[in-house]
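Write out this protein's structure.
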Amino acid sequence: MSAIAERDERIARTALSGLTPTQGALSELIGEMNPDWHSNWAWANYEELVLRLSRRFGLSALCEIGGGRDPGFLPTNPALRGLSLTVNDIDQHELDCAPEGLAKACFNIAGDLGEADARPGSFDLMFSRMVFEHVDGVERAWNNIHTLLKPGGVALAFFPTLYAPVFTINRMIPERLSRALVHALYPARRDGGSDPKFPALYDHCVSSERKLRPMLEKAGFSDIHVQPFWGHGYFKRMPLIREADDLFNRLAARIDWRLMSTHAFVLVRKAG
């Protein structure tokens, strides 16, 4: 067994013992992955981060928030061996389109948990990808996540952020126009396609830890890490605009200008 694997096993045993989690453990784990500034790194390493969180902290009961028809892990994925995965969505139709063999739970993560298809303390690890920008009531969603997590549980949210120009424009223009633009550029996101578009609200979708921490601490989380990213692929068919935008994002990342970030990982842990 490698030194890293031995350390992960040791930390997992400590987590399972019920000890209070070490402050900064999430930041330490992210740092070990050596994240790049560009959001391409976030997309490429999101699933690996979920698995590392599970291994590091001994988390076996997983829930993907808003996974719907396109969950991040298929039931045949060997990485899920020994883990249980529940896929959540607010829309039963989206869950009906999900692959067979997955446990499914239809409820609104920002809604009334009394009506939820899940009990408090049901999960060790809750994670989401490109979901929180669509949530109406993000503060309540984080409160609900805290309730649904077991002691020592972890949550990860990966979402686009304001005030990146491309997402600010998407927020400002009418939904009808936004849908038309996205459908024109990405046929798979048309109604009935494999990746339909949903209205984006961008409530609390920022990468400033200073702005997010009060809300997350109020929800009850003890260990908090916000990882910003810059850059996106929306201009890949527009060479001149793409190059200018890439230069802008490189400069913003170099000075850690989080107001202009495009994406973020938000990781939180519930006290054990």
